Amino acid sequence: MLDATLSAPPAALPARDADGKLDLGALFTESEVPEFLADLEADLIGLKPVKRRIREIAAHLVIGRAREQLGLTAGAPTLHMTFTGNPGTGKTTVALKMAQILHRLGYVRRGHLVSVTRDDLVGQYIGHTAPKTKEILKKAMGGVLFIDEAYYLYRPENERDYGQEAIEILLQVMENQRDDLVVILAGYKDRMDRFFESNPGFRSRIAHHIDFPDYEDEELVAIARSMADAADYRFSPEAERALVEYVTARRGQPNFANARSIRNAFDRMRLRQSLRLFDTAGLIDREALETITEGDVRASRVFSGGIDAPRSAASV
Known about the structure:
Layout: E1 2-4, H1 24-30, H2 33-43, H3 48-69, E2 81-85, H4 91-104, E3 113-116, H5 118-121, H6 129-140, E4 144-148, H7 163-176, E5 182-187, H8 189-198, H9 200-205, E6 208-212, H10 217-230, E7 234-235, H11 237-251, H12 258-280, H13 286-290, E8 291-292, H14 294-298
Parallel strand pairs: 2-5, 2-6, 3-4, 4-5, 7-8
Antiparallel strand pairs: 1-3
Helix pairs in contact: 2-3, 2-4, 6-7, 10-11, 10-12
């Protein structure tokens, strides 16, 4: 379970001028939403449709605050969401940014993100599920509850499964305490669609459905470069060409997880570089310490060409 908390207070709404008008630009700036959107743009490569949807939601919430300030009916917006897409496409990162935006606009009290899976909510014995689920909800109140692979809550094939109890508690809280908690359900799109068909109560409470596309090959290469830059590494020209080949080959292997697989691969490249330098046992300079070579990339089992290369996202 992940719990990321923010301490900054929500932004105050700017006062109206003598004519009763609001400066939307000032409202948008004072909310710090532009800063969060800029961070999202910087932190995540690609994902243009996702960023556009987040911007639309943020704009709608700002306008809602402006309507309230000018005495127009705004109503409490339904903010529960689903994030669908393959692993490693930035869903948790976007959820954290969404929590920050909601907090700055005053839609949640604390602005923290609590990230959980089925194991955090569902017990193994009679009487264990309700206390577990309620404890998680208590921690998440005033912020955002992010449930990854939410479809695992529902297991109709197991008559002794207690996931349905957690679902019923979640549905009640999502409806009755939606002013104090935003729930984001995440997972593969096809499985989430089947989950909603079996649990229509969830679909009726979800206002925003955002699909996260897979990264393109050139975006994954850019992500690898960004990871290297952040860690004071760089790819040699030959290593970068090998990296392009790696990305194409890795996408066709089992358990591909977009940016997550690239991060795992980069970590292994660093390990290979460290072992290579250690084995030389000679004089070393800054350039050698920061350079990932072609050999560090091509040593991956992905290049062996066999289907037995990577058995998991962490083994590449």
